[in-house]
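Hi again,

Forgot to attach this to my earlier email, sorry! This is the prediction with magnesium ion bound. I've pasted everything inline since the attachment limit keeps bouncing my files.
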Amino acid sequence: MSQEELALLAAEIRAFLVDKVSRTGGHLGPNLGVVEITLAIHRVFDSPHDAVLFDTGHQSYVHKMVTGRLDGFDKLRQRGGLSGYPSRSESEHDLVESSHASTALSYADGLATAFKLSGKRRHVVAVVGDGALTGGMCWEALNNIAGDKSRPLVIVVNDNGRSYSPTIGGLADHLASLRLRPGYERALESGKRTLQNTPVVGKPLYAALHAAKRGIKDALSPQVMFEDLGLKYFGPVDGHDQQAFEAALERAKAFGGPVIVHAVTQKGRGYAPAENHVADVMHAIGVIDPVTGKATKKKAADWTGVFAEEIVKIGAEREDVVTITAAMLGPTGLAKFAETYPGRCLDVGIAEQHAMTAAAGLAMGGMKPVFAVYSTFLNRAFDQLLMEVALHKQPVSIVLDRSGVTGDDGASHNGMWDLSILGIVPGMRVAVPRDAVTLREELRESVAIDDGPSAIRYGKGAVIEEIPALERIGVVDVLRRPADGEGKDVLLVAVGCFAELALEAAQRLSDQGVGVTVVDPRWVVPVPTELVAMAAEHRLVVTVEDAGRHGGFGWATSAALRDANLDVPLRDLAIPQRFLDHASRNQVLAELGLTAQDVARRVTEWTAEYLGEDAEQDTPAEAPAPQAKESTVDKTPASRSRKRPQS
Ligand SMILES: Cc1ncc(C[n+]2csc(CCOP(=O)(O)OP(=O)(O)O)c2C)c(N)n1
Ligand SMILES: CC(=O)[C@@H](O)[C@H](O)COP(=O)(O)O
Ligand SMILES: [Mg+2]
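Structure tokens for the complex follow:
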């Protein structure tokens, strides 16, 4: 294609992105910014012979378009449709299922070594954003990449100055300084003239400052920074100037060793509503009107919003409260806090590990840190939580957003591992609110804890204002008791947002004559002792949670019942231990059998199995086959729960 044709193609791609992503939702801003660099990479390199990697992968839509997946965009991020990230099952051009940031350079280092060892002459090209580059893994990788200069490895730094919000920290300042370089040169020049012409200061000071110039330049120039690491650096290049960027890539390719090509791009490029979107230049959108860029559906009150409001109130009451985000100020609900209390909200970049240990340091220094993070990204900071926070009994509050099934972002973004990993941290306490009222309450309870770590977890989407309790016993809320004339057949333990589902299931069961008590444990780690006592009064315990089954709440409760020598049978409904395909949250939950109808159906089956014929009921006709995982732990043939004799 000629340069004119390429410019037309870029414009067509942008129009296509706006048209499709406005209908499905997805990562619009990042993809509008990488049109030219993606085309250039595919023109200069030979994918899939050459390995092309996108860090995080949310900016791989254009790559998908030019590798034969144009038709898939009608169902982007929907069940059975294109993934929102590179996907190995979709194309041989996708090498990794990226989506957790800052991994591409490590993959690239490994691939380049593998190609070298197997004698293959294949280039590796990794595109990494300025945001992703704030993650520690990138620097571990750069250190190793620079250690072997014989491998053809091209790192494209896609520098748009933003993660969601402007990228922060020393590295970001380094990159930003480049754009200001003419000003920097002029400042140096004028400083030089002023000093030379000032008789009192005179030549010695000028000489000293001149000697320091190299130091100043080091501090301001990313070129020096990368070259000091031993990496060849080309740039900065205008990442929207296709010809210039291709020329830089050709040079990088010819160089033959590890090289950084620094592309300056504009996130949201070419679509005014994105370019003018102050908060995050449409990093990730829902369905919008493509003309105005406005959301077509009114947003219901959500969990993040409730947290956002309450933490601002808590911040007013306690000056020691300091919040932390790993580059997700808006999405985790901390933007208002940061605005209200400047200096008391730390955006540390995509650096969850650092965030956790910095939180420990803040707590040691007398502050009350509140680290708000998506549940799936907590995985990154597990060791820091275990060793730096928990071992030192530091009162860090962790606020886990997007817990449980999130759906459309696919396997990596479901927050289904948090209870499993938090459950093994000594001294850890975890609350799971069921509604907005308990979220506010449990957040305050967490912030009040001063002798160790605690977490509060909630999911994606709308929140109910209040699901009232009949009574609180210890920390446990009783939401429903068996109707008059019904026995204490089933203790249905609903974790967090599943309270509503459990109440509906209980009503279905009551209609069949099964007596159900529904409780919300509120604090799920450790398992409340009151809950164990309640279990002893019932004939069957069923737990239902929006969390991974292995090591989840049902798992832990089962162990607690065993420890108490209780023989009451327990069945747990939770997310099975497998990676879940992308689809809407409700579709995924339905596929897992985590709906009120399915829960009622399973409990009906179990009551027949465990409670004998007196409780046997017909299975509701309309219920589909359930697939949620349940355990067989504590399955006893006894028709009554009983205290096991002490031995
Ligand atoms: C470990 C991890 N933490 C947080 C995120 C959430 N996240 C996704 S994209 C993004 C910003 C990425 O910025 P950058 O790499 O500069 O890419 P851009 O969107 O600007 O192109 C963040 C924080 C993530 N994907 N992985
Ligand atoms: C790429 C990434 O990790 C985030 O952008 C994520 O897709 C955001 O998800 P939410 O839309 O749930 O905030
Ligand atoms: Mg960026």
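The chain has 24 helices and 18 strands. The chain has three domains: 3-179+233-276, 303-457, 472-606.

That should be everything now.

G.
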